[in-house]
Amino acid sequence: MDFENTNLECRPLSIKLWPPSDNTRNMLVERMTSNLTSKSFFTQKYGTLSREEATDESKRIEDIAFATANQNYENQPDGDGSAAVQLYAKECSRLLLEVLKRGPRVEADKEEVGSDITSAPRETFFDISKGRRGFFEAEEAEELLKPLKEPGNSYTKICFSNRSFGLDAARVTEPILVSLKNQLKEVDLSDFIAGRTESEALEVMKLFSDALEGSILRSLNLSNNALGEKGVRAFGSLLKSQTWLEELYLMNDGISKEAAQAVSELIPSTDKLRVLQFHNNMTGDEGALSIAEIVKRSPLLEDFRCSSSRIDSEGNLALCIALETCTNLKKLDLQDNMLGVEGGFALSKSLAYHVDLKELYLSYLNLEDEGAIAIANALKDTAPALEVLEMAGNDITAEAASVLAAGIAKKSHLTSLNLAENELKDEGTILISKALGHIKIKEVDMSTNLIRRAGARVLAQTVVQKPGFVLLNINGNFISDEGIDEVKDIFKKHPNMLGPLDGNDPEGVDGDGDEDEDEDKDPVADENDEDELGSKLKNLEVDQEN
């Protein structure tokens, strides 16, 4: 190679100073911990913190400083990060000095109550939701919120739920929230504007939002406020400043298509989100598309609820696809939407990614046999630690029962099963009962399933002998009077484990118009019917493998 003729292009070396590595951040925490526990001018004057308290305070300081500096860096991403580093160091020094001057919390408590009295634990949770429900006005706010104004208080969690804040009360509360926002981690503002006019409610929400802007919250609950798009945007300054949220609750909030779009637009980062709950909204398909975008950006999601939100097939399909990115999911609730058969297939594919799933709520989704079979097949090979399965009201018949039973039989940790309001009849019920024999089930709901005497008897005999069993619900079925007596006799030693049977119809007719003419035949003939059903179960374990 001709080195003399080689064209070496000189490029300026670009070094990014931000963000610091995890190792650097940990070293800084250690250094601050050392400052808080070592002998110095400040510790001699104000007291030395214990190693445990110093470590906690150092981590808190570093978290706040990092978040502040990172927000500054995101506002000027083209820089090399030097300004962010300077701000990071400055914030750490400022907050460290505050802690040094405050001294150890426990020692401060001892000085207040006397050296011979053991100090009480510092309160961290301030809750006014347990009082009377009603309007919350300025005078009451002044009195009730006094503990939050005490210097050096340790409140990190507040709950203002169940009290309706007027504008005057909000103005009293605003400076208190401003003074607390650097220490608050959990804020519950659910149901805090009930009965107010829209204009007053929006103004109250904006006051609270501006007061809490810049706080580093772990959990935020804005449920039961009928927010709509206007309400979501009234909380805009708070939502925009949250980059560390782990839990967000927006239930019964009138989250329409526009409101869902606003939530997706305003929250800058959900990469730390573990809990996201929508329930009883009017989101619809288009709103679900926006929620799906939030889900896609939340890889650490463990608990997702989007129930009773008027979502049809298109929106549910988008949600199912988005959920494939959430491999840490432990709880999934999509109840009372229009998932349908196609949605059942989409969800079955998504379930393959959720090996840690423990609770699955899929009632009232119009799954029908095909959708239920797809989900049951998926569950055979995933979620080995599943504890709760609910698939009520899905028009599931005995045709799907063998596959459903095979999936259930593999869930050795399953403790609660709800298959109410389906059409499993005796044949399907006996198949499910045989599957329950292999697991440690504690609660079973098979109410309203067109079950007659044979199915009720086998199910009762299966669960009554389960260690730790709690409750069987077979109400609303077609069990004969003799069958009811038989079931009660099975539970005679444990009557509290059997739910009410007053909704049972011994003369019931199933959807096909077929009456059970053999209900009152002699017990031997009834046993023969059960044997015939039992013969269909011989290959159940083989079916599990298939």
From TrEMBL:
It holds the Pfam family LRR_6. GO terms for cellular component: cytoplasm; nucleus. It is found in: Cytoplasm; Nucleus. Keywords: Cytoplasm, Nucleus. SUPFAM superfamilies: RNI-like (SSF52047). One of its GO terms (molecular function) is GTPase activator activity. Residues 495-546 are annotated as: Disordered. Residues 504-532 have a biased composition (Acidic residues). Residues 533-546 have a biased composition (Basic and acidic residues). This is RAN GTPase-activating protein 2-like isoform X2. The lineage of its organism: Eukaryota, Viridiplantae, Streptophyta, Embryophyta, Tracheophyta.
